């Protein structure tokens, strides 16, 4: 039980979570490509219950930052603190790397996710009109300061 780096053999379960979590899920080949990035899974009882994917972005004239690309928890396991644990582990990696800022985009109408990120120190910076392929808007959210995160509940 716990959080660990994702492996090739995890992709089928990650894909299942991706499909039940997002209206435009990433295909297997995209998930496989992200195995080279920061890709963590939450495993319990031999099952993958959630995952988080991020990359370190290095842009000219900006300090390096962590770009959170995806965070999802299996629908039957939400509300147990698994997303918080995954985010906390990722922010721990960020701290180890000496990176002070993380950014993400989240669907503007996904208020549960927006509130989740706000509870963990992210703030809405700007609305990105028609950001997603299906035309939906997104919020760009940023977190600059590490805050305490709780452990998952059983």
Features:
7-stranded mixed beta sheet, 154 residues, Aminopeptidase, 27% helix
In short:
The chain has 154 residues and is an alpha+beta fold. It contains four helices and seven strands. Strands 1-2-3-4-5-7-6 form a seven-stranded mixed β-sheet, with helices on both faces.
Characterise the protein shown here.
With 154 residues, the chain is an alpha+beta fold. It contains 4 helices and 7 strands. It has helices at residues 11-21, 28-33, 82-96, 111-119, and strands at residues 2-5, 38-44, 47-57, 65-73, 102-107, 123-128, 138-143. The chain has a 7-stranded mixed β-sheet, with helices on both faces. It is globular.
Number of helix segments? 4
The CATH superfamily name is Gcn5-related N-acetyltransferase (GNAT)
Strand order of the largest sheet: 1-2-3-4-5-7-6
Strand % is: 25-35%
How is the secondary structure organized here?
Blueprint: E1 2-5, H1 11-21, H2 28-33, E2 38-44, E3 47-57, E4 65-73, H3 82-96, E5 102-107, H4 111-119, E6 123-128, E7 138-143
Parallel strand pairs: 4-5
Antiparallel strand pairs: 1-2, 2-3, 3-4, 5-7, 6-7
């Amino acid at each position: 039980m716990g959080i660990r780096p994702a492996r090739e053999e995890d992709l089928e379960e990650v894909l299942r979570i991706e499909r039940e979590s997002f209206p435009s899920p990433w295909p297997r080949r995209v998930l496989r490509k992200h195995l080279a990035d920061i890709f963590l899974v939450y495993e319990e009882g031999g099952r993958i219950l959630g995952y988080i994917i991020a990359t370190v972005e290095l842009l000219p004239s900006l300090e390096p930052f962590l770009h959170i690309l995806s965070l999802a928890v299996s629908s039957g396991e939400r509300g147990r603190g698994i997303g918080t644990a995954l985010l906390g582990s990722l922010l721990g990696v960020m701290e180890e790397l000496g990176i002070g800022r993380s950014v993400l985009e989240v669907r503007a109408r996904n208020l549960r996710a927006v509130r989740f990120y706000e509870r963990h120190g992210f703030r809405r910076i700007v609305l990105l009109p028609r950001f997603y392929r299906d035309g939906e808007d997104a919020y760009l959210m940023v977190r600059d300061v590490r805050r305490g995160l709780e452990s998952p509940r059983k």
